[in-house]
Design a protein that fits this description.
Layout: E1 9-20, E2 23-29, E3 32-34, E4 38-42, H1 49-56, E5 64-69, E6 72-74, H2 78-82, E7 85-88, H3 100-110, H4 115-128, H5 144-156, E8 162-166, H6 174-189, E9 193-198, H7 201-204, E10 209-214, E11 217-222, H8 224-229, E12 234-239, H9 243-251, E13 256-262, E14 265-270, H10 276-289, E15 297-299, H11 304-318
Parallel strand pairs: 4-9, 4-10, 7-8, 8-9
Antiparallel strand pairs: 1-2, 1-3, 1-5, 5-6, 10-11, 12-14, 12-15, 13-14
Helix pairs in contact: 3-4, 3-5
């Protein structure tokens, strides 16, 4: 994914596959994650993101394919890898009857930090996670957002060069999510590589690079701008005071891949090759013919939502 020799890949997979019996959870995923980047695995729940992370952390062996993380071969060197990465799972190991400080000391001990190192590291991650007011409070008594910040602090306590974050902003407020991502940028700026899974399309745009997963398959990868600008489909935005009434009417038009509501407008995604003027005329005829009022119609730049809808639809049709 990168040709910059100053940013060599720290994760490289080739055909990474995991099966559970007859079910394929991850199907031939090939990735290259540059050092110091925030790399996002984007997809709905059940698309295979967590299984990919578990294999890359050495927790789960792949069925087929190869994976190299921080120069270590998996699964052969999994035990060595586990001591040098940071991992924040969806169900983080947070205990209600331990304080924030006790959690941090506990995880520092697991990673072999000395007492002076633990003191320094605790101060560092408490400040990073804005946990000062909660540091001597039982974890069971802090807000959900602070528990997530604590889980992140525990994953960072030993200053790992590579962080795996599995849905780290689940249950966070929008403001807390934005603040959390500010912290990720700070870490990446210091050289830490971060692989993060999310199903929030609005925060995926913050990643330096993305891999889009759908039904166990990698359907596209690249920078957010490259994915958006590379979409070959035609996207039409329709101003409509009755958008809910218009959705089913537009969905039935020839060549329509996806129709989505955006407030009082519609985004209508057409298959590649449809001239936008022709597509706009067909939309207007259909809606006005059914007595639905229509305002301006124009071709617009896609969002990541539109990109994912198009690629997921193409993947489903291919299957």
């Amino acid at each position: 994914m990168t040709s910059d020799p100053s940013r060599p890949p720290v994760i490289v997979t080739n055909g990474l596959t995991r099966r559970f019996g007859s079910f394929t959870a991850v199907n031939r995923v090939s990735l290259s994650v540059p050092q110091g980047s925030i790399f996002g695995l984007l997809g709905p729940n059940g698309s295979g993101k967590t299984t990919v992370i578990r294999m890359l952390c050495g927790v789960l062996e792949q069925t087929e394919g190869t994976a190299q993380v921080l120069g270590l071969e998996l699964p052969k060197q999994a035990a060595e890898l586990k001591h040098i990465i940071g991992y924040m799972s969806q169900k983080a190991g947070i205990y209600d009857d331990m304080t924030i400080r006790e959690h941090l000391r506990f995880y520092a001990g697991l990673y072999g930090l000395t007492r002076p190192q633990t003191v320094e590291a605790t101060d560092r991650v408490v400040a990073m996670g804005r946990l000062e007011e909660w540091v001597d409070t039982l974890a069971g008594a802090v807000p959900v957002g602070a528990r997530q910040d604590l889980a992140f602090a525990c994953a960072c306590i030993h200053a790992p060069p590579l962080l795996f974050l599995d849905e780290p902003t689940a249950d966070m407020s929008p403001v807390a999510r934005r603040t959390f991502w500010d912290g990720l940028y700070q870490l990446a700026g210091q050289g830490t590589t971060i692989l993060v899974t999310t199903h929030y399309l609005d925060e995926a745009i913050y990643c330096h690079e993305l891999a889009l997963m759908h039904r166990s398959n990698l359907v596209a990868s690249g920078t957010p701008d490259a994915l958006i600008d590379g979409l070959p489909h035609t996207l039409i935005e329709v101003e409509c005071p009755q958008p809910h009434a218009a959705v089913e009417l537009v969905d039935g038009l020839e060549g329509v891949v996806e129709t989505a509501l955006y407030g009082d407008t519609l985004h209508v995604l057409f298959e590649p090759g449809h001239a936008w003027e022709v597509a706009a005329q067909s939309i207007r005829r259909r809606l006005e013919g059914a007595g639905v009022l229509v305002g301006a119609i124009a071709a617009v730049r896609p969002t990541l939502d539109d990109v994912f809808a198009a690629l997921a639809g193409s993947s489903a049709n291919a299957a």
